[in-house]
Design a protein that fits this description.
Leucine Aminopeptidase, subunit E, domain 1, Aminopeptidase, nine-stranded mixed beta sheet, seven-stranded mixed beta sheet, about 20% strand, elongated, binds ligand BES, binds manganese (II) ion, binds zinc ion
Length: about 500
Amino acid sequence: MLAIRLLAEPDRLDTLVLPVRPVPGDDGAARPAPTGAVLPDGVGEEAAALTPAARLAGRPGEVHAHLRPGRDPGRLLLLGIGDGDEAAWRTAGAALARAAKDEIHVTLIMPAQVAPAAVRGLVEGLLLASYRFRMTDAGAAPALAGVDVVVTDPDAHAETLVAARTTARMTRFARDLTNTPSSVKNPQWFADQVAAHADGVPDLHLRVRGPEELAAEGFGGILAVGGGSASGPRLVELDWRPADARVHVVLVGKGITFDTGGLSIKPVASMKLMRKDMAGAAAVVAATLGAAALGLPVRVTTLAPLAENMLSGSAFRPGDIVRHYGGTTSETTNSDAEGRLVLADALAYAVAEFEPDLLVDLATLTGANAVALGKRTGALYSDNEQLAADMLAAIATAGEAAWRMPLPADYTEHLGSELADLHSSPNRGAGSVLAALYLREFTGGLRDRWLHVDMSAPSWAEGDDAELTRGATGWGVRSLLRWLGSLG
Ligand code: BES
Ligand code: MN
Ligand code: ZN
């Protein structure tokens, strides 16, 4: 990961980056932002002359490179920062990471009196946009290894730098897990990755249940979905339990390491990206590791039910009745509605075992998420106004997106079954809503303290865009860390 330092004075003058912002009230005009640090001779004047010459408007994401052969600095980059808020700096940081990928090192001089939020946006943008996942050593990796950020008072931003770096590192970890091919990431492999990251962290406890323990304790949903695979299911339970915790949150994430649809097999076009079907589990685990790394004073118990939804002689069948943790039964007419079956076990277990203050789950649950809201926006469900508002605020500040969806009473009747307590896959349209209503049935007395996000759509990006890189986005890590940070 790119090394970022906060300095009071520039230390090297290879490539210098100067922020440029719009001139208020003068449409399309821009000028370099006044900086706290003293610039090398003539550079300030040169940047001021270049800004209109390069037709810069100061929009976040704009970058103009100017060569100065034989002089120091040898390259000047003008970087648009818009209105300088956190989101604008995040976009600017991402643009800088791409524009400077062939540099070894750059020094960015921040505007005078810059707010911590600007540093946060910049650092997250740099670290998220410079992410790459490749399982080969061939081809040139980005050269950019270091960014020095010059601010008037580095100490005032030290904590912000740690928060930004941890958030980005954990988002990158979630992206790694989600991008990894399913031939590698079976349930045990995923659990091993969590163990490697949790190892030695004080107050962080990990328990991994295998098929025998799951059977002994009645986790019938996880066992049914995992039954068709040569790689058995697991339940990861990761507990960040700081002594100063004031609230207890349980996070649950869908962890299907590959979703073929099971015997209700998916067509190839829908199946080929189904290695991402554990993005919810990746996000909740990464956020919990982040909470531990930052020492957030919130107890976070994270459950990741992990299973591979395969078809084989031991796969569960359409028409089977599954008995979940705690005894509730589900009629399953479509083995492709597997996510809710594993989540049902985990939610029921969370309620019975922990009775937390708040219960949140993230899942790549339905294709209907993208039908309703497009490719960037998660579908958020909760009966708790405060919890929904707090989470939506955290999501917005973090630079992710979600839209609140209804849990309409007139739709719950479709969950009825003649054979079991519930029907897991009624075919009535509004797939994301029905899945959320089904999950709510497992929240027991915590029904009003539960929040669910269907994040099928925003878990994946089709191409590089601002801080997102093609492939897994790590959606949810940034939002959850903001939200957990606001609880302590
Ligand atoms: N993992 C899929 C949902 C999904 C689809 C995630 C596209 C990301 C992109 C989930 O298990 C699924 O197959 N859902 C079905 C539910 C249906 C069978 C009730 C769906 O959305 O079609
Ligand atoms: Mn499925
Ligand atoms: Zn799935």
